Structure formats: structure tokens, C-alpha cells
Amino acid sequence: MKLIKRYRNRRLYDTELRKVINLTDIKSYVLNGRDLKVIDNATGKDITITVLATVLGNAKIDFKKTGPKIITLIMHKGGIGFMDIFKKLTLASIGALNLTREKTEELFDELVKKGEMSEDERSQAVKNFVDRTVESSEKARKWAEDTFKNMSTKFLSRFDEQIVRLSDRLEQLNVRLGELEKKVGRDSR
């Protein structure tokens, strides 16, 4: 597991490579399947989820390519509870798009006041903006729900697989223990 330390100045330090890295490097580690742990150097606290969420929120990433891998890693590190919070935040940010309608209407109102746009053009522009925003918001909401549902399913199925394997192993150990107890009982006679 790759250990990354974050210092007070918010710099990230790769202890294996012995050099300062950035969020792009963290993204590369995730894309290359490297398991990593990020700790705050001052407190020793595990801040992996926080750093991964920062990488996920970074506008410079290709979300379709990187997002699912980072989300999977966040789920692995933080579990479903964190993902529920993350899902709510994502859906809330989609709702924030609707607030931009007010700002857009104000912008179009200014254009009407300056005579650069007629009232009819303003109405049509606002309608077009609202239609595109609603369509985009719906697509984003559906994508977010589908992504989180898919990730949750994958996470839970892996968890279930691990439980089944551990149960099988435990059963094997119990059988072996029973055999050893019988053997010890026979040998002690």
C-alpha cells in the first residue's frame, strides 16, 4: 500500500518515491489500481477519503474515466455511509443549477433594460435556458443515481463474496478442529 503524507502546508508527500506529489499523481495511482493511504502528518489521522473526494471534485479530471474508480476506492475506504453523504451532496449540487436560473433572468433583464434584447427574446432565452437546465439536471441526477446504485451493488456483492469465503474457511477450520480433537482424544487414551 502506498503511503502518502499531507503536511501543514497541504503538500502531499509520497513516502515511497520520497517526493512531493499533487492531486494529479493521486489520480494516476487510483487509475493504475494502486491502493493508497493518506495520513495527516501532524495528527496521524487517516484522511484518504477527504483527499480522494478532493480529487473527485477537481475540475481537471475526466469524471467518466476517473470518477467510478475513485468512488469505488472511497466506498472501499469509507463504506456505504460515506457514499450516502456523497450522493446527497452530488444531488444537492445538481439542485444548485436551478439557482442559476435567477441569475440568468437577472442577466437577461439587464439586456432588456439596455435595449440589447426585446422582452420576447428575453422570454424565449429564459425558456431555452430553463429547458436545457432541466434536461441537464435530469440527466445528471439519473447518472448520479445509476452510478451510486451500481457502485453500491458492486461494493455489497464483493462484501457478500468475502463473507461467503470466510464462512467456507471457518467451516473448513471447524471440520479440521473436530478431526484434531478426535485425534487428541484417541492419543490421550
List its traits:
189 residues; alpha+beta; four-stranded mixed β-sheet; 4 strands; 8% strand; elongated
Summarize the helices and strands and which ones pair or pack:
Layout: E1 2-6, E2 12-14, E3 19-21, H1 23-31, E4 36-40, H2 48-57, H3 63-113, H4 119-187
Parallel strand pairs: 1-4
Antiparallel strand pairs: 1-2, 2-3
Helix pairs in contact: 1-2, 2-3, 3-4
Overall, the morphology is elongated
**Sheet/helix structural class:** alpha+beta
**H/E topology pattern:** EEEHEHHH
State the separation between the terminal residues, measured CA to CA.
50 Å
Would you tell me the overall average pLDDT? 76
The helicity comes to over 70%
Question: Can you offer a commentary on this structure?
Answer:
The chain has 189 residues and is of the alpha+beta class. The chain has a domain at 1-61. It is 74% helix and 8% strand. It has helices at 23-31, 48-57, 63-113, 119-187; strands spanning 2-6, 12-14, 19-21, 36-40. It has a 4-stranded mixed sheet. The protein is elongated. The model has no long low-confidence stretch (mean pLDDT 76).
